[in-house]
Prior knowledge:
- The chain is mainly alpha-helical.
- It contains 21 helices and six strands.
- The strands form three sheets. The chain has a two-stranded antiparallel ribbon with strand order 1-2. It has a two-stranded antiparallel ribbon with strand order 3-4.
- A hairpin with a 7-residue loop joins β1 and β2 (11-12).
- The longest helix is centred in the first third of the chain and has 37 residues, at 118-154.
- The model is unreliable at 57-65 and 287-313 (pLDDT under 50).
Amino acid sequence: MTVTTPGRRSYRLTLPHVAHASLRGFLGGATAIWGVITVLFLAALIGIVTSLIGFPARDPDGSTQSPGPAGMFDVLNLAMSFAAIGAQLLAIVVGSDTIAGQFARGTIRASLTVVPKRGMLFAAHALTACGAVLAVGAGTGLVSGGALLGCAKLLGRPVPSQIMTAWLTGTGGLALGAAVLVLLTLALGALTRQRLVAVLVPIAVLYVVPIMMAPLAGTGAGLWASRLLPGTAMTALFSTRLEDGTVTVGTTDLPYWGALLVLAAWCAAIVPIAIFSFVRRGVTPTSSRSPRPRSPMQTAFVAASTTPATSTYQPAPYRVTVARLLASEWRKGWSLPSIRWIVVIAVLILIGNGAIRAASGELTYRGSTPAQALANEFSYAITDGVAGVALLLGAIAAILIAGEFHTGTAATTYISAPRRWQVVLAKLINTVLLGMSIALPGMILAAVLYAVIYAGRGYPPTAHMLSAGALTIVKALVFLLLIAVMSAGIAGLARRTVSTILTVAVLLVIGPALLNATGGLAKSINSPLAPIGNLARFLPLEGAKFYYPSLEMPFIDFDDSGIMHVSAEFGIVVAALWALIAAVTWFITDTRRAITTH
């Protein structure tokens, strides 16, 4: 294809030309640059902190509690794992914004006008995104490992040559895994044309699904299922260990070549379908789809937004109340296809994950009676999928609240309801009610199914078992209600769908995992920094303890090493404080911020 530019000669439009233009667009974005800087800064910080924990300074007598050469690999792998999370999140954001973001912004038609060959456009975007993330992933590994080993040298710890080899090898694996992830995310965005889906699905697969598969840990089915997850394969690419004096890449469960095969299989399953869909389907930017009014309130919204500026404002013929706003928000929420997809996913999570425990789990008595053991296992099965549903509540808040600022419909809502607090209250209540309307039927349906499964295994339902399950459902609903309020507040503050989901994911999944792993490493070598894991007790996920079978624990207690142990009541109070702070901050700031759209 030949293109002529004003004042320049004609040239043939080739893949390098398109890829170069795509790269210039990526480098010209302030968000991308700040994202790269943030990831590299966090990588350096992770390396320093992990070094201080894993390689403490020598004591005055020359002794040290630091691990030996084999243990140094564990410390390096931990630092690389933490740094990889930052590179993975950046890959998800870049991949979701490359094609799905163009559909959301309505710029995809302009791109196809310049580059009519869709296959070439997809390939150019893929090359640019993979190349950029590959470079950032390599930089992340180099910075994190360099900071780790540099601090180890400053602390007087010798660094064997095998560790240097493992660092460089792991850096290459980390970069390769991040590049594959951005390709998969880009393909998912091209297939679904929904940026929210392209962000939520990778986060769920990488960080939520492994947690939900915990009941299968130690079984043959669980081992094979974990090997097929892309997150396991990406971890195997940068994990190193010392075997017979030789550096070996890969984990004990998945070797390096196996990780490459797993990622290649995922790419072969998703990328060709995404290319075919992108090339063959019609192009309709999602931002150009006008919402259909479904209620008098929504009709007033549309009328207000289309009234010429020179006309006189005509107030609505009825009083604008919170109840009317709530009814409008409720109908509007259920009219969105993404909400209906979330309902299906939530039900599958609640039923499927607990069904594995109910069908294959063994009753653990732990000194209790058989009836109590059955009640405990029944309660655990009901709530195995609650963590995944909590993350979906963040997606619901992002769609219902932050999504309106992205699509430009927030202005019409605020114009038709002059009192902003009414709009904020209606959106908050609507998010909570919609989340509860998904979680409550899902958990009841799951409980009925699990009771049937246990009866088939020879454990007929008892009154104690059913009452324990009912109490667990009520407690889980309290926790999910607080998470819904917190997610709504975060969405109202961020006003961006991707930022909302990433923040909720960090608070519920990534943050607790990082802090608990760091604290566990520090405690294993008796490091004085072991209490750093106590910070996880102040994250909202701690409220999940509230719906576990009751354990007799003090409200707050510290052991000899300074590790904090808290009760279920402490956890739910922490979750309530997060919800209160997020909601109140949203209410206060919303009245003072301009209603701008993205």
